[in-house]
Amino acid sequence: MKRFITILAVVLMSLAALTGCGPKASETIKIGVNLELTGEVSVYGTPERLAFQLAVKEINAKGGIDGKQVELVIYDNAYDTAKAVENATKLATVDNVVAMLGSATSAPTLAIGPVAKQYEVLAFTPSGTNAKVTMDGNAVNPWVFRACFIDPFQGLVLANFASNTLQAKKAVVMGSSSSDYAKDLAKIFGEKFAANGGQVLTVEYYTDTDTDFSAQLTTIKGLGEFDVLFVADYAARAGLIIGQARAMGIDVAIIGPDGFESPDLNDLAGGAANVNNVYFSTHFSTLSTDAKVQNFIAAYTAETGEAPSALSALAYDAAYMLFAAIEKAGTDPVKVRDALKATTNFAGVTGTISFDDFNNPIKSAVVVKLQNGVQVEATIVNP
To answer: Which residues contact 332 (CB under 8 A, 6 or more apart)?
Structure first.
């Protein structure tokens, strides 16, 4: 019996020693990821996950942060707000992450915001563009940040592009009356274009279910000469409008927001031949000659087998801004939040970034030109 107890004690000590040699939670820096990885919008979440993983692989290869390896704890919210809340709660209370990255789209991100505030864990979305994402009612939610510009910002950028780059003096606007996205963009574009000395001849609205825009385009064509057509909408309708406008002989420059950026745009427009003199605002372009951008493109392509999108680039920047905040502040979530808030002139692949009072990035936008349906130019535009 005594011998048995002695052997048992040795075994237990050996197990304890082995356990001590293994990794401890404190030896890694855990960062949560809450993304749309399945379902209808996984096309947005998946490239962001790949970019997060690339950034972590790179930082860990350089020794991690303060000698600790970074570990991602990844959950799929499947574009379901309830699941996004469940994931965020688990990340904050069970996984004890330092911060959370995601979601990719606005609805889950809006749902995550109150959880981030309740448990005082930073939530950093690469691409949730809804203006309310960083708000808590009429006040700012101090625990939510974003790496992308907000929807109304694009109206300012495109108005300045139309006025300064295209030298437009007269514009017409089209947008969906069913969409706050479209109505806000149309309003802000019109106000800024007028402030720049231009004239908006008309704003023509339609609904999200429309596919025939001949009535609006006939009205527009009857106005006489103008320089630019601003379509405040996503590719599903913008492509149809582009094709129908070209078929009616409306050959002016057509400009629009980041919703234009879709592999389906050319087909919706009736072929690439119709997608000439078309421009859209976005967060990033592979046409950039900046060495930092080109290095990211090469690394992402080598890692994933495909070129990065604007979503990939935004996620990559979000990850590295978070790494910088953790390196500066340590792993206390409050101090990480404060360090991120203090970020100024961060040199990212989507631009040079600081944060405003609403936790939105202060940065330039890119306006891309399409010729025969192919991106041929990228212009940096300030608001």
So the answer is: none
